[in-house]
Amino acid sequence: MIRTNVKSWMFSTLGLPLLFACGIEGSRSGTLQSGAMASLRISDGPTYDFGSQLVGQSLEHQFTVTNRGTQVANQITSSFYLSQSFSYKGGTYPGAGATCSTELAIDQSCTILIVFSPKSNQSVQAGLTIQYFDGVSHTQSSGNTVKGVGIYSVSD
């Protein structure tokens, strides 16, 4: 009887740390489930080519931003890097007539409007980047490259 109790007790004592370890492991996988986070994707990537456009004229394109994650994305901002030939329609995010804001719900989409206005006769490209809070604990980025060629008209 004492042996049984001792074995039982030893089993319990050994079992508790194991159960506790399993509990910690469970907590970790719960934390790792923070793979449950917002995940924004921009359409027409990884590179969108506006093609050729006359210098001094503009061409616009609507991109769709989709939240493929499992959390709401918020604190959404955006910017361009390396070029003055690309901008948001009207000058600011998300572009005049576009639907994106500073928050995007799970499985929802919105639009941004980008304008290509080449300033010179050359090939240009820029990084279109959207930064957002993933709903868990990190600021994330999603981006595409946009490119185009500025050309002069034949009469210039």
The topology string of helices and strands comes to HEEEEEEEEE
Mean pLDDT: 79
Rg result: 26 Å
Helix content: 10-25%
What does this structure look like?
The chain has 156 residues and is an alpha+beta fold. The chain has two domains: 2-34; 37-151, Immunoglobulin-like (Sandwich). The chain has one helix and nine strands. A five-stranded mixed β-sheet has the order 2-9-8-4-6, with no helix packed on it. A four-stranded antiparallel β-sheet has the order 1-3-7-5, with no helix packed on it. Strand 8 (123-133) and strand 9 (139-151) form a beta hairpin. Mean pLDDT is 79; it is low at 1-34.
Task: Tag the structure with descriptive keywords.
single chain; 156 residues; 1 helix; four-stranded antiparallel β-sheet; alpha+beta; Immunoglobulin-like
Summarize the structure.
The protein is α+β, with helices and mostly antiparallel strands and 156 residues long. Helix content is 20%, strand content 42%. The model is unreliable at 1-34 (pLDDT under 50).
Secondary structure elements and their pairing?
Layout: H1 2-32, E1 40-42, E2 47-54, E3 59-67, E4 73-81, E5 86-88, E6 103-104, E7 109-116, E8 123-133, E9 139-151
Parallel strand pairs: 2-9
Antiparallel strand pairs: 1-3, 3-7, 4-6, 4-8, 5-7, 8-9
